[in-house]
Design a protein that fits this description.
The structure is a homodimer of 630-residue chains. With 630 residues, chain A is mostly beta strands. Chain A is built from 7 helices and 41 strands. Among the domains of chain A are: 183 residues, Methylamine Dehydrogenase, Chain H (7 Propeller), CATH 2.130.10.10; 46 residues, ligand-binding face of the semaphorins, domain 2 (2-Layer Sandwich); 85 residues, Immunoglobulins (Immunoglobulin-like), CATH 2.60.40. Helix content of chain A is 13%, strand content 40%. In chain A, strand 21 and strand 22 form a beta hairpin. At the A-B interface, helix 1, strand 19, strand 34, strand 35 and strand 38 of A face helix 1, strand 19, strand 33, strand 34 and strand 37 of B.
């Protein structure tokens, strides 16, 4: 059966190849990989007033702050639902259009919880104190946007507050600036960016070289290449020095003196196929900054999604080594972009390049240059990545991708291949996910929707608890098979590398509880079915990576598939249709009986016997009656 | 119900818009339009030896010639299956690799059926005569490719044979040439094209100005723009004069002296989203050449498909009016590309531009510049377009698109919107369609697969014969509702413009046979079902544009959908589940009962009555017995 199928597929591919001449069709698989499991986890939710565009989530030890409209909720992290405090921050000054104070910034700044909001199109910032008190601390223009649909970004690093937000009501003068803190305020030269949308920023710590620490800003902007072939949008990384104090009085005063930018590329260069529209970024920081990884989520002009992974060292290397775009003369010393103790003393030639040619010639390519780590025909909104110590002794990275339909994809970074462990529904609706906050310590992901926050439990091993095979096939680094079932602990049977279940049978002696063969008794169902009527058998589709079939009298039948069930439809019961049916699933090296039915005919024979007996009785009675009466 | 749904959709779109900031997601619908009907028409097929890459189809009045391996079949057009003659053309000279003679060219040339083939990598051409005779007529290099996987093209126009095929075994020196006929042989300058794949060529007749008639060649080639953003492939139209005789002895002798080329664009320019890879072309010739339309099928680097429609007049206008790429000086007289009686007397400055700057600066845009006529996430291989005189008095264009899965899509060109009437399976397999030949007079489409030819009947009105509503909803210009049912004739009820079925009820008096209300009796099925057992009802999904629901005791339920059925699953029959079920379909202004079931319980009550009666009888008998006997 399988051989015939693969011959068919091969023939098809040969046709394709022959037909197309060039291998156009090979770039994207027509059927992208499915999530292995579709799960539901709708138990932990916290509802709040509908928020127009973003729900800000901020975590400080065991408190989670949620920024809504006119208030900030302080929630207990462990429960994910218990509201500890509710700070009411109504807008004090009202613009004509809107009186709402949409909270857009929550940071830990100057030993306080620091909050900014749109405040009726007059952005303001407050400090929150114990006892639901707060004080107005500063004007918020340039930190919070004026309305919630405007783009903004904030970052607190080494005692300074950095932010990107438009200065004007109409959304113009949107820039990345140092706004408050220990160091002086700095902003950007107007010509450096064109219609930017800021996505993320972070500080890369260098424990032994703090002077050289850089802040990276990731954004998309209008492409300066206006040729008809070029995508109108392009993604970028910009870099500034943490210790930057701007240029001297006569040149670039209060302007970043170390600003550089480069193109962030994600795509299939051989096909000139690029995902140019950065959507979200997650940085997996390492002890040594050169080992850090930047995970970036992109969409393309034709609405596909890709994830590319970048080495922070290689990313930084482009700024250190590339030539400057459109600048052909000798590069002055110090090289533009070098961090110095006193940037005000930088020589003018160095600053002149920063001002006029801040773009790198080289592009920033992902670790694997040829192709993205993950591509999908669906749309995604957010990304987070967790490092997991698995029972196989290795550390595995698990990507958490938020879809625009409100579900979370859990993806194993398996070498350079993506294995989609599951897709989980956290709410009943299909609102897109607006924000995510990963608590790697508690193994929880806080997921912000327009009107509610849900907690995604990263180690829900009970989802694969049916047998050792189920637990191992899941390839979920958070879980392993133990004598108590599939558990979130580091010792047990697991095979993240390839999901092979052979260890399950070898370890039967060692591990007491053996659920390898599923408890058939509870799955075996008996039905008495009359002939001629339609009848159906159903079997839940647990794994989308498994193949399902029905076994009946040594014949195999394929499923009639609905969204979550494998059906066997019998239009009218005949004699041959009675007997035992087994719904078998097969995945990798593991075959199991998912459900078993026994269909038996109505006891037709016995009623016939009864009737015959009745007839005999009535004949007997009649005979007796005649004998007696005559 | 509907309102709630649309509110939900609206909310979702608002989320999307808010979330994305820029309207990235609006370019491609996530759910592209479905074909309304999925049909099967596997009756008329003719099998032959498997052919490696293309099956050449050629029609001459009521004979269809099919080029295979080592033979040409002459088939009766009306039956589509009856082989009239079989010309055996085995290869005479054998190369080391292959002895096959794959027929690649069939044309009507010099009053004969003219055939060329690979002939064991030594291309040859033959003339076919009555009685299955043939003679070798010429060497075929440059007319037929050496192997069937190589690209080639042929055209007979005004007594001349034009062809594109590589001159060498390895596929190099692939050009478009005039090879034989009344006029002298001509070829191209080596520098004009780069790695071309020729797709189609045609002559545009000008009845009142034959001197100015042009031959157009459509192909894709390597993009000369090698910037990383540019697609490596690009589509083009080239144009030469029919009367071209090449340049004078000293310059461009035997080379096209009127060759020009321009980029053929299909895409969404605002998003810099182009379908650059031409796959097939169909020209809908009109009486006046300026009214002719060129239908072109493209694929994109990410494997989507698009159809763009071009006005031949506008296409030609680019060659007449555009400046020449990279040429900035004054354009000499006559303008390069002008057709003249004696091209050998053309001035050198004009010929110099033809040689060095044959590319137009302007691009050829489709009639609707903003967006393709049709886009799809599937892959298509061939296109044909038929003009249909419909019962509404208008002429409608119907596109026939061949998919790489072997099905045919029938698409109505509804103003500038595509309405997909149906997708038809012609074979049981999924081999891609390699060639199509439209017989517009007989309303048949001959469809060539690797190992068989199928005939697609364009006017299968019996597919919509159930009722006037079904016939009109189909929006098939070949069909109309008459007193004899849905028929392929021009008088009857039809509404191609919008598919509204209101005319059906208004015309009840005029049209005798009324099938508007489906014959319910034959659709009503009664089942006696015991309690507690699983039970299902099924209803065929006829139209993918309709919504289906189950009506039971004034409650509506949605379907459990499989590929072609709408199911209603009852896990275990209860008292409430008995009664009448109606499967209702709703589309546009038309609602109908597709199927009706009546579920009745087993006659439990009557057996109780019987038993009671039997008890009474036995008591009665016993009493009689006692009375009599005692």
């Amino acid at each position: 059966m399988k051989t015939r199928f693969s011959v068919h597929i091969k023939r098809y591919l040969v046709y394709r190849w022959l037909f197309c001449g060039v291998c156009f069709q090979c770039v994207f698989p027509k059927d992208p990989p499915n999530p292995r499991l579709t799960l539901d986890q709708g138990d932990k939710r916290l509802s709040y007033d509908r928020n127009c565009s973003h729900t800000v989530l901020f975590q400080e030890s065991n408190h989670l702050f949620i920024g809504g409209i006119n208030h900030v909720l302080q929630v207990d992290v462990d429960s994910g639902q218990k509201i500890l405090k509710n700070f009411t921050l109504s807008s004090e000054i009202c613009a004509e259009k809107s009186c709402e104070n949409v909270v857009t910034v929550i940071e830990q700044f100057q030993n306080c919880t620091f909050v900014c909001g749109t405040n009726g199109e007059n952005p303001r910032c407050w400090k929150l104190y114990p006892g639901e008190n707060y004080t107005l601390t500063m004007e918020g223009t340039g930190i919070s946007p004026h309305t919630c649909t405007q783009n903004s970004l904030s970052l607190v690093a080494d005692g300074d507050l950095y932010a990107a937000a438009p200065l004007y009501n109409d959304g113009t003068l949107l820039q990345f600036r140092r706004k408050a803190g220990n160091r002086i305020s700095l902003w950007m030269h107007d010509q450096w960016l064109s219609e930017p949308t800021f996505i993320s920023s972070f500080l890369a710590k260098r424990n032994d070289d703090t002077m050289n620490e850089k802040i990276y800003v990731l954004f998309r902007e209008k492409n300066s290449d206006t040729s008809p072939e070029a995508d109108p949008w392009i993604s970028r990384v910009a870099r500034v020095c943490k210790v930057d104090e701007g240029g001297p009085k006569q040149f670039l005063q209060n302007i970043w003196s170390s600003f550089l930018k480069a193109r962030l590329v994600c795509g299939i260069p051989n096909e000139s196929l690029y995902f140019n529209r950065l959507q979200d970024v997650f940085v997996l920081h390492a002890e040594n900054w050169t080992d850090s990884r930047v995970y970036a989520l992109f969409s393309s002009s034709w609405n596909f999604t890709a994830v590319c992974i970048y080495s922070l060292e290689a990313l930084d290397g482009v700024f250190e080594r590339s030539s400057f775009k459109d600048y052909n003369k000798e590069i002055p010393t110090p090289r533009p972009g070098t961090c110095v103790q006193n940037s005000k003393s930088l020589p003018i030639p160095t600053l002149q390049i920063i001002k006029d040619y801040p773009e790198m010639n080289d592009w920033i390519h992902p670790i694997h240059k040829d192709t993205p780590f993950f591509t999908s025909t669906d749309s995604y909104t957010k990304i987070a990545v967790d490092r997991v110590n698995a029972s196989d002794g290795h550390v595995h990275n698990v990507l958490l991708l938020a879809t625009d339909k409100g579900t979370i994809l859990k993806v194993l970074e398996d070498d350079y291949k993506a294995f989609i462990i599951s897709e989980t529904h956290l709410t009943s609706g299909s609102a897109p996910i607006q924000s995510m906050k990963l608590d790697s310590e508690r193994k929880k992901l806080f997921v912000g929707y327009p009107d509610q926050m849900a907690v995604f439990d990263l180690q829900r091993c009970q989802d694969y608890n049916a047998s050792c095979g189920d637990c191992v096939l899941a390839r979920d680094p958070y879980c392993a098979w133990t004598e108590h079932g599939c558990m979130s602990q580091t010792k047990g049977i697991q095979n993240i590398a390839n999901g092979s279940t052979s260890e399950c049978s070898r370890s039967l002696g060692r591990i007491k509880r053996d659920l390898r063969s599923p408890p058939l008794v509870s799955l075996r169902i008996q039905h008495t079915v009359p002939t001629d009527v339609p009848f159906y058998l159903s079997c839940p589709v647990e794994s989308h990576h498994a193949t399902y079939r029905w076994e009946h009298k040594e014949k195999n039948s394929t499923c009639q598939k609905t969204q979550s069930e494998c059906l066997f439809l019998i239009p009218a019961m005949t004699k041959d249709d009675y007997g035992t049916y087994k719904c078998m699933s097969h995945e990798r090296d593991y075959t199991k009986v998912v459900k078993e039915y026994k269909l038996i005919p109505e006891p037709v024979l016995s009623t016939a016997v009864q009737r015959r007996a009745q007839e005999w009785i009535s004949i007997f009675v009649t005979v007796v009656f005649y004998i007696c009466c005559l």
